[in-house]
Structure formats: C-alpha cells, structure tokens
Amino acid sequence: MTSTRPAPDGVIGVTGEVDELDVLVVGAGFAGLYQLHRLRELGLSAKVYEAGSGLGGIWYWNCYPGARVDTHGPHYQFGHPDLWRGFDYDELYPGYDQVRAYFDHVDATFGLSRDIRYDTRVVGATFDESDRTWTVRTDTGRTARARFVVLCTGIGAKPVMPDIPGLGDFRGICHHSALWPQDGESIDGKRIGVIGTGATGVQLVQECAAVASRLTVFQRTPNLALPMRQRKLDDAAKAELRVGMDAQYAERVDTFGGVEFDFLGETSAEIPAAELREIYEGLWARGGFRFWLGSFFDVFTDEAINTRVYEFWRDKVRERIHDPVVAEKLAPTVPPHPFGVKRPSLEQNYYDVFNQDNVRLVDVNDTPIQRITENGVLTADGVEHELDVLILATGFDMVTGGLTQLDIRGTEGQTMAEQWADGVAAHFGTAVHGFPNLLFLYGPLSPAGFANGPTNAEVQGEEVVMLIDHMNRRGLTRVESTAEADAEWRDHTAEITDGTLFPRARSWYMGANIAGKAPQMLNYPGGLPQYRQKWAESRAAGYAGFELA
Ligand code: NA7
Does residue 352 fall inside a structural domain? Predict the structure, then answer.
C-alpha cells in the first residue's frame, strides 16, 4: 500500500513527508515510466521521483535549438499497442517538442502522473538491513522508504562543463545544451559560438546557422555524421508507417540495437567490391543509422574494412563542402579514429552550412581555446571570437555520472563512486554487490549506449520487473548480485570490446570524455539478443549471479 504520512521523529535527514512504497523509481523518462506502469500492473505500490518539472527524462531537459531524436520515430515509442495505435509523430525523426507530446500521450493513456512526484531530486539513500528497506532522501525534504529502488536516471543525467578558464567572465548568454532555458532564448541575428560537435553540437550548428548573424563552431574532433533523410509525415505517410508495426515491435528486441533493422551479417570479406559498394550506397540512401548498425559487424572489428567504410563516408561528405581546407577539417583524408567507434550523429544539412558566409569553423587542435573573455572566446592565435551567445555542447559524464553523483550508501557505507573508483563491475549492468534491492536501468555495462531507448527500457526493464515479481511471489525480501557475477559481466563486456576497434577512439563509450575516469567500455557491445539470452540463462538457473534471501 502507498501511504503518505508525516515523518517520524528521529529519522535522519527527514524534514518532510515520507512515502512508504514497495518500489521507488527514480527518473520519469522511458525507463522510469515503463517501470511505473508495469509495477502498478503487478499490484505493487510504486512512485517515481523526478528532478524535472515534467515527463521525458532527457527530453524534459533537452530543449536547445534543434534538439531531436536520432531514432526513426515509429521506433522511438513503447511497443504497447494501446500507446502506438493512438499516436504518430509529425516527422520521421521527431524534435523534442514532439517527444514531449508523446510522453503526454503515454501519461494520458496510463494515468502515470498521479504516481510521479515532480521537482523532487533524489540526493542519497541508505539501506537498513533490519527491515531490508531503503530510505531515500530528496532535495525537497521528502523521503521514501521503499523495499526496492530502481534508478532510471538515464545515460546523460550529469552535464559536463568544459574546463576552460574564464567561463564566468562572459557577459553574453551562456548555457550548457542540457540546461537550456525551458522558456527558450532569443538567438536570432546574434553572434553565436558552439563548443563541441557531438550529437548535440551537430543539431545546434544546423539550427543556429539558419538564424545567426555569425556562427563560430569550435571543433575538437570531427563528427562522422550520417544523413538523416528527415521528412514530414502527412496522414498517408503515417498510415503507411503503421503497417506491420505490431510485428516490428515484436521483432526489434531481436536486433542488435532494438530498432527496425539489423546488421546484414558478421562479415563482408567475401563480398565483391562492386557489390559491397552498391550495398553501402543503398544504406546511405535509406539514411539514419543503417550505414552504421545496419551494415556488417566487421566494420567494428576489421581495420581494413573500417577504413574502406570511412573512405566511402569521407568522399560522400567532401562532395558537399566547397572550401577544401574546411573539407579537410570536417572529413579528413586520414580517419581521425575508426568509423563508428565514436557515436556518429544524424545530420540534415550539417556539412552544407559550412558553405555559408555566416559560418566559420575553428579547429581547437590548431588554435586551442585559451580562455573565455567578457566578449567571447580567445584562441591561441590571439583571435578573440566575439559572441553574444556561447553554447556549451560539451556533453555529459555519460553512463555512470547519473549514478555516481548520488550519495547512495551500500552495505559497507560506500557510495557508488567509491565502489567504481577503479572501474565498473555490475551484474548485467543492472545490479552491484553491496547495494541490495537496488537495481538500475541504462546503467554502466547495460546495452543502453548502443540500443534504442524505448526498446532498452522494455527489455532490461522487464527483467527488473520479473525479478521483483519473482521475489514477491516467493516471499523473498533481499536481492544482491555477487561480486563474482559483477566481475564476470565486466570481463565478458571487456572481452567483446577487446575484439573490436572501440578502444581506438576517445569516446564516452570508453569513458574517455571525462578526465580521471577509469578507461573501460561502459556499454554492453554484445547486442540486445545476446543480452536477453544471458538474462534468460540466469533466470533459468534460479537467477544465477544474484543472492536471493
Ligand atoms: P558528446 O557526444 O560527448 O560531445 C561533446 C562534444 O564536446 C565533443 O565534440 C567534444 O569533443 C567536445 N568538447 C568537450 N569538451 C571540450 C572542450 N573543452 N573543448 C572543445 N571541445 C570539447 O555530447 P553530446 O551532448 O553531443 O551527445 C551526448 C549523447 O547524447 C550522444 O552521443 C547521444 O547518445 C545523445 P571530443 O569529441 O571529445 O574531442
């Protein structure tokens, strides 16, 4: 039963009300909403605590100009027929406003908001062995006491400010992309600077180039972006996309990335060059991530093949850029890193905007940023790039940051940051020894970094739901992964990674975008089918790798 009552005296840190729950879910994005809906279906009392004022997780925060999904819209949804039959996006790759409308639709259909506490940020938690209950503290003073905690904080919950001197000196408008004001910001006609050319930077550049009097893009690593092939969807197109969706939702869990396509095979080595080129052309023409996760897996394992793919990409892109110097910066002759081992973005006119007179590219490897001044960005060549608006598209402490920033104490009093100081070990990327009855989704060593969000929320999420249900049915009250299982999963992830080119790029996949973070593949690169198989084997063996009590 859910009950809300005044806090008892003597409960440490409690200044407000207490929710007594079976399960506290943290975060109201895809993962959190799936949990809430399913746990309620099982008759459990569950609530979601959400730091933002609305639904959507990262899509609550992401409202910078151009913020958009890199997944085919029909698959950027839950597979539940009550949901997808009643909703269509207006574009093939929806913008953040459309995604927010989708979350409202989910809320209206399942009545989720009544169990969500918005503007409530979880700051820490402790586990009481005597009654096997977590006490969870929030920034509002509200507390939850819950038998289980499921952290659904997403892979990008902790924005990273660049370590550039003088950031506070800038007199103009300056925001990190993830902290863009919810009521917008006027950028039309302004001199805009964008630092960073990841997925966010690419989207910002496209949007800002259309409205800025001058746009200066500070690039450290070129983004090997792929054509999105965006289009508006009229009623006929929407109806067409719905054909066969039931089957597609059922099948997507059998694909590597949980989407509408899969790798064509393990290896392309035997395919004649002309035929392979035709395949690449076809993937390129269809757009989206097909050229990346819908080709052959050996692009990740075979350097010669990877280089061939890179050269195909490079030549396509360079055709669009007029200035050869700029072309060399954006699509270098020699690959900056193997293709696809750092997340490519989807682009619409990203490369074309660099042909515009109002757009300039600054390579910070040639001319490093020395400091931010009152007026803009000073680079090592002595040029002060004057700006009215400075946008930091510098990314996140990806995958782990959302968890390690919390003061959640395990059985030995340790935080997750301390537990993982030398690297992450976590059973199925879902549980860690020393933190009983605590489960996390989209976390380190889970498939989330390579998988479509909603699919991952369903696949990994359903495993968590089944585990909790299994325990309830048997009257079990404590679950903890074993240290051996955590290590085994880490080693399994590393073993797959060692056979690939992923360690060859400085990417957030490998934790390399954050100084001091232990270098390690943080995302399970085995694909969803293998991930599901591993869980199924554990379940069949009575939840091998977990100690149930
Ligand atoms: P990313 O992908 O981490 O991109 C951050 C970008 O910012 C990247 O180009 C970085 O260059 C650049 N960066 C970071 N710090 C600096 C400094 N100090 N100077 C210059 N450039 C810098 O974050 P996004 O927000 O774009 O995307 C995150 C994920 O969200 C994305 O992959 C999707 O899954 C959705 P670098 O490449 O490190 O050289």
Answer: yes
